[in-house]
Amino acid sequence: MTSKVSSAATDDRALAGKVALVTGASRGIGAATAQALAAAGAHVVLVARTARDLESVEQAIFDAGGTATIAPCDLAEPDAITRLATAITGRWPALDVLVINAAVLPVLTPVWQIEPIDLNRGLLLNVAATQALLASFHLALRKSPGARVIGVTSSVGASPRAYWGAYGASKAAFDNLLDCYAQEVRRLSPIRVAIVDPGATRTAMRAKAYPGEDPASVKPPQVVAARIAALASEDFASPHRERVEAP
User: Fold this and answer.
1) Are 39 and 29 in contact (CB under 8 A)?
2) Which residues, in sequence order, are bridge partners of residue 241?
3) Cβ–Cβ under 8 Å, residues 23 and 48
């Protein structure tokens, strides 16, 4: 992991002194969320597979007066999340914000044509990695005086849609895991869990799913990022669910 720190950072922002981790932070909603959290004062750990892309996000945060650490990591690799947690908890005593954003979109196809390898890939990153993140960072979250876990979901998890069966199934399981975790910890700790449906947003995944769509017709990821950053310091009943609409 490498870090950049700017002397321009101040201590009067909502997340000043907090540590946040964002998965899928190299682009789209993840990158925008990382920048929004940093703007609110958090030191942000940027997690994604490609170091070069993470460095670009880190530089943007630094240029804006924030601080960040890059942690290149393939969440689908065996033991990768355990190693990530060991490195982070060895450096910071607590984790205040965990944004679970990384996801993969399996091929859109009828259920009877889903390839097992494609379905398994979606379940591995969208579901198994989520459980591993919660398990590996649970103690660090409990050490925070007001930790927030925010999961980025999709409407197809709750409302099935033809041809979206593989992705929808993975997101339904994702939602279920987060909801169960919220119920399990809400009386034991101040950890609060929010499940955020970003709605139609200008991302690479959206472009892959809707190749003929005009990107300008949907909201930019910064709109979703601003809402996630606000939830990171808001008080709310847990589990909390909301959909981010275009302004």
Assistant:
1) no
2) 195
3) yes
Please name the fold of domain 2-243: Rossmann fold (3.40.50)
CA atoms of 129 and 139, how far apart (whole Å): 17
| DSSP characters over 60-118 | HHHHTT-EEEEEE--TTSTTHHHHHHHHHHTT-S---EEEE----------GGG--HHH
| Burial class of residue 190, CB neighbours in 10 A (0-12, 13-18, 19+) | middle
For the record, the structure tokens of 20 come out as 């946040």
pTM above 0.90, yes or no: yes
For residue 236, the tally of other CB atoms under 10 A from its CB is 12
Contact, 47 vs 20, CB < 8 A? no
Active site residues: 167
Beta bridge partners of 192: 148
CA-to-CA separations, 222 to 31, 35, 203, in angstroms, rounded: 9, 9, 11
Give pLDDT tens digits for 142-190.
Answer: 999 999 999 999 999 999 999 999 999 999 999 999 999 999 999 899 9
The tokens 């942000």 sit on which residue? Answer: 44
